[in-house]
Specification:
This protein is of the alpha/beta class. The protein has helices at residues 4-17, 65-78, 86-106, 116-125, 135-146, 155-164, 178-187, 191-194, 202-205, 213-223, 239-248, 287-290, and strands at 40-43, 50-52, 149-151, 168-173, 196-201, 232-236, 252-256, 279-281. It has 2 domains: 4-56 and 149-290, Rossmann fold; 65-146. It contains 12 helices and 8 strands.
Length: 292
């Protein structure tokens, strides 16, 4: 649990350091077919609600090489270490992630998710330097450098339109502790106040998309609201993690094809074979037009 002071510091840092970032248009055509009997719209975050400079978020998987290098140099600086120590920090980070993934898979978790605070705590323990620098500060500094983000055009308009219509809003995201804080910093309100409930965050449940357990968690929450998976559309930028995994869990999967950085069609991946999106949007403002 973050202290109120640290929580506000992180939100302020995100606001101060974030810069406008525009999506790169794709040539993928929209498919705006009407979807009947929709009570809930659930969203992915990175690459969907947020333009993501790295295309997606994961512990070291989505960021560009240059972004990673700069991020590890920034961490070195925060720890009072020279740039020359950045590769060693990168190695320690990688090893901490691999160790946690290996341990989780040994217990049967197919697609484990790490808690990045545990990773940065482990990294800090292996290094000399400023031990007063908290893992929260290190994690956010790394993320702001490696994966800059900005609200996707049309996100607020789509959210507000759906909420006015009485549609239940939800989030299902491969994410870390700073993700809801990033939404609060850049959208002006925390996810719950924007209308998102439930929110399924991968770091909280220990599994990440495309693990089917992620959408089972969403189903459990929606069941208490009397909403079936078939009455829910899930909007995301990845044919595997978002569309296919949602469809296999009984949801309708809508592909967001509005940013070339984040669009993942997964052509040739056998896991998406036979799956076609229930609709395709190229602008989030198109989503209310799908919902009947």
């Amino acid at each position: 649990m973050l202290s109120p002071g640290l929580r506000q510091q992180i939100i302020d840092d995100i606001r101060t350091e974030s810069r406008p970032l525009s999506p790169i248009p794709t040539v993928h055509p929209a498919d705006l077919r009407l979807l009947q009997d929709v009570s809930c719209v659930a969203f992915d975050v990175y690459g969907t609600l947020l333009v993501s400079g790295a295309g997606e978020v994961a512990a070291g998987s989505g960021e560009t090489a240059s972004g990673r290098d700069g991020a590890f140099r920034r961490v070195a600086s925060l720890l009072g270490l020279p740039d020359a120590d950045a590769p060693g920090i990168a190695d320690a980070y990688h090893d901490a992630v691999v160790d946690r993934h290996t341990a989780a898979r040994a217990t049967g978790t197919v697609q484990p998710e790490i808690d990045v605070l545990e990773v940065w705590s482990a990294v800090a323990r292996t290094l000399r330097g400023n031990q007063a620098c908290s893992p929260e500060v290190l994690a956010v500094a790394y993320e702001l450098t490696a994966n800059p983000v900005w609200p996707m055009p049309g996100a607020i308009e789509a959210i507000e339109t759906l909420r006015r219509r009485g549609v239940v809003l939800a989030v299902v995201s491969n994410a870390q502790f700073y993700t809801p804080l990033t939404i609060e910093a850049l959208f002006g309100s925390p996810p719950a106040r924007l209308g998102f409930h439930p929110c399924i965050w991968s770091w909280e449940i220990g599994v990440a998309k495309p693990d089917p357990g992620v959408f089972r968690r969403l189903s459990d929450h929606l069941e208490t609201l009397g909403i079936a998976p078939r009455q829910t559309i899930y909007v995301g930028n990845d044919m595997l993690n978002d569309v296919t995994t949602a469809q296999e869990a009984g949801y309708r999967g809508v592909l967001f094809a509005g940013d070339r950085r984040s669009l993942r069609l997964r052509a040739g991946d056998h896991r998406v074979h036979g799956h076609v999106p229930d609709a395709v949007v190229t602008d989030l403002r198109q989503i209310p037009d799908l919902v009947a």
